[in-house]
């Protein structure tokens, strides 16, 4: 208030002084420019100058106000646009969660242009398109997502790979993940997706090469890693045998042995994997090595499937093979599977009486069709046909889980 008063006072004093000067001498002003001249008293010139200055000031003030009003309007309008975009984005995500894919895509793409996070809009819209099985639109939206944020290329490729896996496009997903693999050390989830793809494609070699990375980055827990390693090894062994021919049997044998040597202890001491390896060795005609592999594993882990294989595989020395099995019998006197194995090994050594004793003991401990069948064919060759038929009949009934009690004709003499 005081400042306004002082300004008004100064203006009044200046005006009084100016009037006094004008009365004393009105002055003379001449302005010449080219062929034009303007003559005026000092009073009129000063008043004209002040009027021009006021006019310029007014024009500048008016322009300033108009610009400010325009910016404020733009901010207001832009703010409303962003607010509507946020509302549409929220509605689109809610529709996505509810499974309303078409509505979700429409809302998210419509709000993407003015969204603070267009990447999220386009990614969710792409997922909605994937659920709608609209491949072309999915690719289009993923491209927009990648373009909306230059640092999100890997994230977009990971999302694309997930969508391809979801659709069953495993080869396409593998190509996508291969591009992202160079950055996988920063994005370990890429390895998890590669695991799914390799397993789905039954690419056991690719999966085997991936196992160290799965372990290093702790993508899966120890038990799952062990199970996956064992499955991978077994499938690789079977693949080598499946490709085996009479012409390359030696190559197949060498490939089996080389593959087995590369396995770690959690695979090489797993009974299921050892059984698979031994069975593959038998199929490439290396039963001597198969016998040794099975024997060593039985000394570590006693499994019925392994003892069954040990009874039929032909070792380098059948007599020593029988002795090894009889040593196990000292600790496992009531093991029906071991007794069956011993009976078969006795047959290999042409010990007919011992074989019969072992088969009979196995059948007494646990009646089984295999022991009956072995007794039946052994006794038939020994000329004891009636007893042989009896065992064959017993084994047949066990293999068919018994027959119902029904009327039968009387036995004819």
UniProtKB/TrEMBL annotation:
It is found in: Cell inner membrane. It is a multi-pass membrane protein. Gene3D superfamilies: Tetratricopeptide repeat domain. The chain crosses the membrane at residues 41-64. Residues 27-131 form the HemY N-terminal domain. Keywords: Cell inner membrane, Cell membrane, Membrane, Porphyrin biosynthesis, Transmembrane, Transmembrane helix. Pathway: Porphyrin-containing compound metabolism; protoheme biosynthesis. This is HemY N-terminal domain-containing protein.
